[in-house]
């Protein structure tokens, strides 16, 4: 998983609304992000696979290849962080996007400031640690995490995690054996305050669960703690 730097990062912005995309792109540029805007899914997939970008911002509703299909194809090719633009209140597309590996979403209409803050948060958490002496890995049973390298291994097998999944698993691992609230997970893993009725954390945790082997008794390694949050079992 490549290390990404939030400073001077190159952003791929995908939206068929030319006026809106231009406004958002201009704001991102002013905030220091090199930004390339495309207006259809075909161009988006080709650009995302070029390896030039640190993050893709993809509108769900586009003619031809939809944003959901763009996300699907990006995920099939690699782990580029993806932020989805969704219609406000459209829970179906939102949850589907998260299940397919989107790192987060921003409901439209959104302000350029809000979008930029969310992009910056994702990139900051995808960037790993500062250069220097590598820190010791984080080891919880068969799970080993190297936060600075953005690398995770389970029983000597590499885990294929999205940027946000890695963030959330790291938070759970650092607090293994105790319940971590959704507020903590959202703030530390997504870079934003937890919103009531937001299922993002649940969807991401569900995906992580599927990538970790269950306990000997068949239970998930990540337990739901009623009215508290989630807990990574140390065993």
What's the total count of β strands?
11
Instruction: Give the neighbour order of strands across the main sheet.
Output: 2-1-3-4-5
How many helical elements?
A: 8
Mean pLDDT: 90
What is the straight-line distance between the termini? 26 Å
Spans of 5+ residues with little confidence (pLDDT < 50)? none
Report the principal-axis shape.
globular
CATH fold-level assignment of the largest domain: Rossmann fold
Kindly report the name of the CATH homologous superfamily of the largest domain: Response regulator
Topology order in helix (H) and strand (E) letters: EHEHEHEHEHEEEEHHHEE
- Rg is 18 Å
The class by helix and strand makeup works out as alpha/beta
Class of the largest domain, according to the CATH hierarchy? Alpha Beta
The helix content, as a percent range, equals 25-40%
Give the oligomer, counting copies of the same chain as homo and different chains as hetero.
single chain
Strand content: 15-25%
Number of domains: 2
Description:
- The structure is a single chain.
- The protein is built from eight helices and eleven strands.
- It is globular and about 55 Å long.
- The protein has two domains: 117 residues, Response regulator (Rossmann fold), CATH 3.40.50.2300; 95 residues, Orthogonal Bundle (Arc Repressor Mutant, subunit A), CATH 1.10.10.10.
- With 235 residues, the chain is α/β, with parallel strands linked by helices.
- The two termini are 26 Å apart.
- Helix 4 links the parallel strand 4 and strand 5.
- The longest helix has 15 residues.
């Amino acid at each position: 998983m490549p290390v990404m730097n939030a400073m001077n990062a190159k952003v791929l912005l995908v939206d068929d609304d030319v006026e809106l995309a231009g406004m958002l792109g201009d704001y991102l540029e002013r905030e220091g992000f090199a930004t390339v805007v495309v207006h259809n899914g075909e161009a988006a997939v080709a650009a995302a696979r070029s390896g030039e970008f640190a993050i893709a911002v993809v509108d769900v509703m586009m003619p031809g290849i939809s944003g959901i299909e763009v996300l699907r194809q990006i995920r099939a090719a690699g782990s580029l962080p993806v932020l989805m633009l969704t219609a406000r209140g459209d829970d179906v597309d939102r949850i589907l996007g998260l299940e397919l590996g989107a790192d987060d979403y921003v409901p439209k209409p959104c302000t350029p400031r809000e979008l930029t803050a969310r992009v910056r948060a994702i990139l900051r958490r995808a960037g790993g640690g500062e250069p220097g002496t590598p820190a010791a890995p984080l080891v919880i049973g068969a799970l080993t995490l190297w936060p600075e390298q953005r690398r995770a291994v389970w029983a000597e097998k590499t885990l294929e995690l999205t940027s946000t999944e890695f963030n959330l698993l790291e938070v759970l691992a650092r607090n293994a054996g105790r319940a971590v609230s959704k507020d903590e997970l959202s703030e530390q893993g997504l870079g934003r305050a937890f919103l009531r009725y937001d299922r993002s954390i649940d969807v991401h945790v569900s995906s992580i669960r599927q990538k970790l082997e269950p306990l000997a008794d068949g239970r998930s390694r990540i337990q739901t703690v009623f009215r508290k949050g989630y807990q990574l079992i140390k065993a």
